[in-house]
Design a protein that fits this description.
The chain contains 26 helices and 20 strands. The strands form 2 sheets. Strands 1, 2, 3, 4, 5, 6, 7, 8, 9 and 10 form a 10-stranded mixed sheet that branches. The protein has a 6-stranded mixed barrel with strand order 12-13-18-15-17-16. A hairpin with a 5-residue loop joins strand 12 and strand 13. The relative contact order is 0.13.
């Protein structure tokens, strides 16, 4: 093995450019693969870790205390299939006023619990202490937020309930409640429902959960179970954002692996072909066929290991901001989001192994080659290969350098096919990114409402409460529409409501006025235009198992109202649904608008309108609206980064091919220059040898990129695109994409072509 090591080390030093190409390609591929695996891990691992550590509840169930007694509920903990249970805890819903702890008004689910520990759903305190006496409350706070000790001691006054003092902030992995009080305080709130928390033997699927819950409650009176929330719903909510990015991250990772395999195979094959003499020398010195193969495997493994190690470091460094963007706004429990150890281990072991396997096939050619055959074969192509095409091209009207260049790929068909395959993947990547960008631009144009300027106006509800003389909703809306430059106005009221069947509260947006812009975002069904109708985004529908046509029941201020999902929005908050203002009037006619959206007429003075609003009503806070979408920015940003990486890798593959071709044709180049071929003609010939491969690669790569684009846009879970935004391909754009293959080929060939043009004739023919 020492002899193998010395020979392979010498080959690495002699083939520095090839070594650099292999290392850089493996680096790019490792980075993309690690990011894809990291996102896949982060989509569920932090939730699973936090859920297991805090003994999260597989099911959070609410029961009607008028039908089931506390003793009966406690007996369910001993039913078959129940591993652990906690409760029963008294439960009620408080209707909170506006701006409580800087949150919107709405329903707050409160549970009476003596301590945060227990066999199921161990509550994690973030600030302060647990509520142990009447008049105290602990509020469930998002773990990625910072409540701060200054908010402790805040007094909350719910409608129809005594004043409660905030003594702590906590978080529940199971999201079992919005707040907790002591059992004594809960008794004073006169609860009508009780909560039980269960962990089951089998809870991996919804069917297993339903079976376990049915078995646990089988002996209870009929109708006593009112709601039940599955931990799988929480898990889907956690990973929904990552699931949206996972398809194209996985796709780019696969593309990176394919490019690596193709280029490594090309490099080793070319090294064997152009190094016949080197193989013969090694065998004549006593190297066995297996040792010769080991030399070539070690030659590519050395840069592959280095490139893989650096790529792993780069991938881990880039994972932080990428995963932060993918999980923005998502509660992660007490677990941190990041790439675990196993994706890095897979890349560190798998990528060099993949490179070795890719190199083994072409290296086996050196195994079969005898010493005499290798020493006499030289490095020139076999006589007669590609001559027929060369003659036909020579009789054409093409310039001689062009005809000579176009015929060169047929001399090494295997090498040419590998190079073209790398170009195909590069063009497919460019096509995919171009399509994604066009789709996202179309989506952004729709959100800007055909270029109309949008003004978002926040209503200061605290100022409205202090000044009873302030105008009502309707008067404010008419005043905003009457100001110079206004074209249409939409009023929105944001409130928290309780969704029947779920323990968590959700946001509800109620709209009034001109809703044409909102109706344009409907991809299925129609915009809610009547009482009892609602619309929601794909994330909300998926997390709650709903679809257009389903019915839900919301509760606000002690009243409840059924809503029918009549439309699916292109995009929406995973915790919010939209409804018509008439539905809000039935629940609570006193709720005021929290925001107004004004679309200005074309050519209107934005600054003048904002100043007019401020002068007309100091309780209104206008600001120029922005239509940026985090999902749009993330998708386009990720795709652009990976496109640069993969097209660079494809260009490096072309560079390697042309470099080896120039080296093995030094004698031919010297003879051509000796009979009058100029350096410029040498460059044209060299570039032409891969330009045709680039054109063919463009024609083949475009359909692959279009198919990949459709695969990605159909699985971006946070946005549902209409068909018009998916059909982004036009003839001029497709023609430009064909040229992308030529561009990749030309860019990769320029440096070796310049080297060939500067090759001295005397150096090339010194052995003649």
């Amino acid at each position: 093995m020492s002899a193998v090591w010395r020979a392979s080390y010498a080959a690495v030093r002699r083939r520095r450019l090839q070594t650099f190409v292999i290392g850089l390609v493996v680096l790019c591929s490792t980075t993309t693969t690690l990011l894809g695996l990291g996102l896949l891990t982060a989509a569920s691992a932090p939730f699973d870790e936090a859920f297991s550590r805090h003994r999260g509840a597989h099911a959070v169930a609410s029961f009607d205390t008028a039908k089931a007694s506390p003793e009966q509920l406690a007996d369910t903990a001993r039913r078959p299939g129940v591993v652990a249970a906690a409760g029963p805890f008294g439960q009620t819903v408080l209707e909170m006023p506006e701006d409580w702890l800087w949150m919107s008004a709405g329903s707050l689910s409160v549970v009476g619990r003596a301590d945060p520990a227990g066999p199921v759903d161990r509550i994690r305190l973030l600030e302060g202490r647990w509520a142990t006496a009447p008049g105290e409350i602990v509020v469930n706070w998002p773990v990625d937020g910072t409540p701060g000790p200054d908010r402790l001691g805040t007094r909350l006054t719910a409608r129809g309930a005594p004043t409660l003092t905030v003594v702590g902030f906590a978080t529940s992995t199971s999201k079992s409640a919005g707040a907790w009080v002591s059992p004594e305080q809960m008794d004073r709130l006169a609860p009508t429902t009780a909560q039980m928390l269960y962990r089951f033997t089998d809870a991996a699927t919804e069917q297993e959960l339903r079976t376990g819950l049915t078995a646990a409650t089988a002996e209870l009176p009929a109708g006593s179970l009112t709601t039940a929330q599955s931990h799988l719903t929480l898990k889907r909510a956690f990973s929904a954002q990552a699931d949206a990015y996972l398809p194209f991250m996985t796709l780019f990772g696969v593309l990176g692996l394919l490019v690596s395999v193709l280029i490594v195979g090309n490099v080793v094959s070319s090294a064997v072909v152009s190094g016949h003499r080197h193989v013969g020398v090694l065998k004549s010195l006593g190297y066995t066929p297996n040792q010769v193969v080991a030399v070539y495997l070690a030659m590519v493994s050395f840069p592959a290991v280095i490139g893989c190690a650096i790529g792993t470091l780069v991938g881990n460094a880039a994972a932080g901001p990428i995963l932060k963007a993918a999980f923005s706004g998502i509660e992660t429990g007490s677990a941190s989001i990041g790439i675990g150890w196993w994706p890095s281990a897979v890349c560190l072991v798998g990528m060099p192994a993949m490179v070795a396997v890719a190199a083994l096939i072409p290296a086996s050619r050196a195994h079969r080659l005898s010493a005499a055959q290798a020493l006499t074969a030289g490095s020139a192509p076999r006589a007669g290969r590609g001559l027929r095409l060369q003659r036909r091209l020579g009789r054409s009207r093409l310039a001689r350098p062009v005809s000579l260049g176009l015929g060169q790929p047929t001399a090494r068909p295997g090498r040419s096919l590998l190079t073209m395959a790398a170009i195909v993947l590069g063009v497919a990547t460019v096509t995919l990114t171009t399509g994604l960008t066009s789709t996202m631009v179309a989506y952004g144009d729709m959100r800007t409402s055909e270029g109309a300027t949008r003004i978002d106006i926040q209503a200061d509800t605290s100022a409205l409460r202090q000044d009873a003389a302030q105008p009502g909703d309707g008067q404010t809306e008419r005043r905003l529409l009457s100001l110079p430059g206004a074209d249409r106005v939409t009023a929105r009221a944001l409130t928290k409501v309780h969704l029947a069947g779920y323990t968590q509260t959700v946001f509800a947006d109620f709209y009034r006025g001109d809703t044409r812009d909102l109706a344009a975002e409907i991809v299925k069904g129609h915009w809610p235009a009547d009482v009892g109708e609602a619309a929601a985004g794909p994330a909300f529908l998926a997390q709650h198992g709903l679809s257009v046509g389903d019915r839900v029941t919301i509760r606000l201020n002690g009243r409840q109202a059924p809503l029918t999902i009549v439309g699916e929005l292109m995009e929406g908050n995973a915790k919010a649904l939209a409804a018509d203002w008439q539905s809000l009037t039935r629940l609570d006619p006193t709720v005021r608008a929290t925001e107004y959206t004004v679309r200005l007429a074309p050519g209107a003075d934005v600054r003048h309108y904002i100043e007019s609003v401020e002068a007309a009503d100091p309780a209104l806070r206008p600001a120029l609206g922005h239509s940026d979408s985090p999902a749009t920015t993330a998708v386009v940003g990720f795709a652009s980064v990976f496109t640069v990486l993969l097209t660079s890798a494809a260009a490096l593959g072309v560079f390697n091919t042309v470099l080896l071709t120039v080296r093995e044709r030094r004698r031919d180049l010297g003879m051509l220059k000796s009979i009058g071929m100029t350096p410029r003609q040498v460059m044209v010939m060299t570039v032409s040898s891969v330009a045709a491969l680039g054109a063919i690669g463009g024609l083949v790569g475009i359909p692959l990129g279009i198919a990949a684009h459709r695969l990605v846009v159909d699985h971006v879970g946070v946005i549902t695109f209409p068909e018009s935004m998916k059909q982004v391909w036009h003839l001029p754009q497709l023609a430009a994409l064909v040229l992308a293959g030529v561009t990749i080929a030309v860019l990769g060939a320029l440096a070796p072509a310049r080297s060939a043009a500067r090759l001295p004739v005397s150096e090339a023919l010194h052995n003649e």
